[in-house]
Specification:
The protein is of the alpha+beta class. Helix content is about 35%, strand content about 20%. The chain is built from eleven helices and 14 strands. A four-stranded mixed beta sheet has the order 5-6-8-7. The protein has a four-stranded mixed beta sheet with strand order 11-12-13-14, sandwiched between helices. A hairpin with a 2-residue loop joins strand 1 and strand 2. It is elongated. The termini are far apart.
């Protein structure tokens, strides 16, 4: 197709530019994997693996390898790992504007329509790369988390690790082994610190953030504490709980607990657990993102009152 024919389709809206040189049907909402394909194609990754280097004297064959692969935040989105800074109205973070690819040869970053495609020259070992069923070359979940050590905040990296652990994409043992393997890499302390507190029992980023906020003052809060009645029937499962104090902390998500019906449901749940001696504190997204000290003081104060009542 000629350049003028492509430009004509872009002008009339039939096509839209994803990255310079890559196009999609106009008005379409691309999946993370489709965006990954576009980023790889825009980074000279078409037709890979490609031949490079001089022919082997014995066989006459040239080596074959990859030119570009989806990595970092882009790979995390393809693996559906939670990236809390992608779009956070509480902090104003808009990391969705940033995507990452790993390239064999140095290439400049690409800026388009307010978005940035970051191109990182990285080296990979055995087991660091895989290919999806659609043909996208991408870093594995574990390698994605390793690369994100330089791209995410501590809280965001822990949330991503918790998501990967909860879904079985990685194991705690593999995270620990990776921390040892990269101990001399730049940013290794950030990865090690996140892996040390990651917990696959968390079922949402909000639960992870709540645990991180409260851990310095209430280290005995445990994720996913279950409450059973005398007939061993499940009464409730708390996001975080201290079974000695019978203190529960519930994270109320931005959407799941909105509106009067959910408020009534939450209150009914609290009423069911109160006869068993449990007290529930509830926190919201804005609080764990912007009012951490206030949350610590409030929940710690409740814990101290419960502790005093038991003396």
């Amino acid at each position: 197709m000629t350049t003028s024919a492509v430009d004509s389709r872009v002008r009339d809206g039939s096509w839209e530019v994803v990255w310079p040189g890559t196009y999609a049907d106009g008005g379409s909402v691309l999946t993370a994997e489709q965006l990954g394909h576009a980023a790889v194609l825009a980074s000279r990754g078409e037709g890979q693996p490609v031949e490079f280097g001089r022919p082997d004297p014995a066989t006459g064959q040239r080596r074959r390898g990859l030119v570009a692969v989806a990595a970092g935040r882009l790979a995390a989105r393809v693996w559906q790992l939670p990236l809390i800074d992608d779009d956070d109205p509480a902090t104003g973070a808009q990391d969705w504007l940033h995507s990452d690819v790993a390239v064999r040869l140095p290439l400049p970053d690409v800026h388009h329509a307010g978005r940035v495609l970051h191109r990182h020259q990285l080296s990979f070992g055995a087991g660091d790369l895989t290919q999806t069923s659609s043909g996208l070359w991408i870093t594995t979940p574990l390698r994605t988390l390793i690369d994100c050590r330089l791209l995410l905040t501590h809280e965001a990296l822990v949330c991503a690790m918790d998501g990967a652990l909860h879904r079985g994409l990685v194991s705690a043992q593999r995270l620990g082994a990776a921390a040892r393997r990269i101990e001399r890499w730049r940013g290794a302390p950030a990865f090690r610190a996140a892996a040390a507190v990651a917990d696959g029992r968390a079922e949402s980023p909000g639960e992870t953030l709540t645990r991180l906020v409260l851990a310095p003052v209430l280290p005995d809060l445990v994720p996913q504490v279950q409450l059973f009645d005398h007939a061993v029937r499940l009464v409730a499962r708390f996001d975080l709980g201290d079974e000695e104090l019978k203190l529960a902390v519930e994270f109320d998500g931005r959407r799941a607990h909105a509106g009067e019906p959910m408020v009534a449901k939450d209150r009914g749940r609290d009423l069911r657990t109160e006869p068993f001696g449990w007290t529930t504190e509830r926190v919201r997204w804005f609080e764990v993102r912007r009012q951490q000290e206030a949350v610590r003081r409030r929940v710690l104060s409740r814990a101290e009152r419960l502790r005093s009542a038991r003396r």
